[in-house]
Every structure is written in structure tokens, then in C-alpha cells.
Amino acid sequence: MPKKTTKRNDFVIPNDIAALFGSAPILKTEDEEIYWNCMERVVKCVEPQDVIEWLWVKDVVDLSWEILRLRRLKIDLIEIDREDKNATIEWEREHFDEPYIHIFSGKLTPPDTADIEARLYKQSLATETDSVKLLFKHIEEYERIEKLLTSAELRRDKILREIELRRDHMSRRLRAASDEILDAQVQVPRIAAE
Fold first, then answer.
1. 15, HSE (Cβ side, Cα atoms, 13 Å)
2. In terms of C-beta density within 10 A (0-12 exposed, 13-18 middle, 19 or more buried), how is residue 40 classed?
3. What is the pLDDT along the chain (194 residues), one digit of tens a residue?
4. Would the pTM of this model clear 0.85, i.e. be above it?
């Protein structure tokens, strides 16, 4: 009886394995097709032989996806803050003559000439120095992301080593079995000749 399979892009996943995989672990802002393209590339490279290897492949792809996401997040952490600050600067340029609202009292204070000039000529955050300042503002979050990234990389590397060890062990067992068969074949004619 042929094994039922699920086709994803140009590669095939056995149905029982596809059921274990479930949906791609992606965010709404991420592209599911890219995830399955990554899966396809890893499957073609590893050529999983059994359910254990298929699950390891899934883990490797998921961890690789997480690593890519965390790398993007480190950049986004700074760039989102830069965009927010630049939007505020742009708003202040466009509304240079609007009064300030005091947070605690709620009173409106009209801007003086120095305030107006400061708003009109304030520079956007676009330099390396600005990036460094933003990085240090978010250094604790950045370090937490870096720890998550290191953890994901270590877990992925451990699974890859497990696949290598399993395959190496399997290869040695296959060689031993093959040698045993060949040795038995060589001994059979000698026994028959005696």
C-alpha cells in the first residue's frame, strides 16, 4: 500500500509527518511560503529517513526561522524607535507654532522664538551616533534578544549534531552488516569445497 503524502511546493511530506508538523510557526507579518521554501531546502539537504529525522528537520527549520526572526528583531528594536522619534520631529516641524501642553497641569504654553526655531531645525535621527544612542537606550532588550538568539542557535546546532551522530552510527551499522554478509558469502564456498 503506497504511503499517503502531502505536497508542499515541489517537495513531498508523508501525510503522517505533515499531521505532526501542523501549521507553520509564523507571525502574521511573515510569509508562510518562505517558511515552506526553507523546509524544502532542509528536507532536500538532509533527506530524512524516518519520523525521528523528520521531527529533527522540523525543529531545525523552526529554530532557524526563530533565529532569523530574532536577528530582524534586534534591528527593528532600534529602527522602530528611530521611526517614532523622526515622526515626532516631523510633526513638530509641521506644527512649529502650536502651544505646549503641560502634562500635569494641562495648561497650554505658547512657544517662544527659541522653541519655534528648535522645532523647525531639529535634525532627524539618521546618523551612526543616533543609532548608537538608540541601541544603548534599548541595550537591556537587545541583550535579552541576544540570549534568546544564542539559545536558539545552540539548540539548532545540537539537533544537527544528533542527526550527524545518528547517521554516522547508522552508517557504521550498515557497513558492519554488509561486511558480515560478504564474509559469510566468502566462507560458504570454502565450506562447500571441503
1. 4
2. middle
3. 445 556 665 678 988 999 999 999 999 999 999 999 999 999 998 889 899 999 999 999 999 999 999 999 999 999 999 999 999 999 999 999 998 887 888 888 888 999 899 999 999 999 999 999 999 999 999 999 999 999 999 999 999 999 999 888 877 887 888 888 888 766 655 555 55
4. no
